[in-house]
Amino acid sequence: VQLQASGGGLVQPGGSLRLSCVGSGFTFGNYAIGWVRQAPGKEREGVSCLKHDGGTPWYSDSVKGRFTISRDNAKNTVYLQMNNLKPEDTGVYYCATDVRTYTACARADYGVWGQGTLVTVSS
Predict the structure, then answer these.
(1) How far, in Å, CA of 110 to CA of 98, rounded?
(2) Of 83, 82, 77, 107, which is closest to residue 95 (Cα–Cα)?
(3) 80 with 48: CB under 8 angstroms?
(4) pLDDT class for 53, splitting at 50, 70, 90?
(5) Spatial contact of 5 and 19, defined as CB atoms under 8 Å apart
(6) Cα–Cα dist 18/27, whole Å
(7) Which of 17, 46, 52, 122 has the least C-beta neighbours within 10 A?
(8) 2: which strand partners?
(9) For residue 91, what pLDDT is reported?
(10) Spatial separation of the C-alpha atoms in residues 36 and 46, rounded to whole Å
């Protein structure tokens, strides 16, 4: 089982980035999947997640209205479109799967994790 995240980088405040995560080694379309971030010196924070068949996503209050999660099960890929980025969005972003509920998403209580991609928001 593997999750490969990409798309991080350096962006100015107010800018946008799109993260991607490709899954392999499991039936991607059978699992909820999401994103978790970890800022320097802070604990991991659940950002967003989406059920196996789509539907209404979950977002943390800190990103609601700015981030959009989506998935393409045919491509085994989940995306995180991040708009109006703020310096406090800086951190390593992980995609993760094997989660049962949106409550667990909020706790970042996933069973399988990818390797992370660094997002830096700075002028």
Answers:
(1) 6
(2) 77
(3) yes
(4) confident
(5) yes
(6) 24
(7) 122
(8) 24
(9) 98
(10) 4
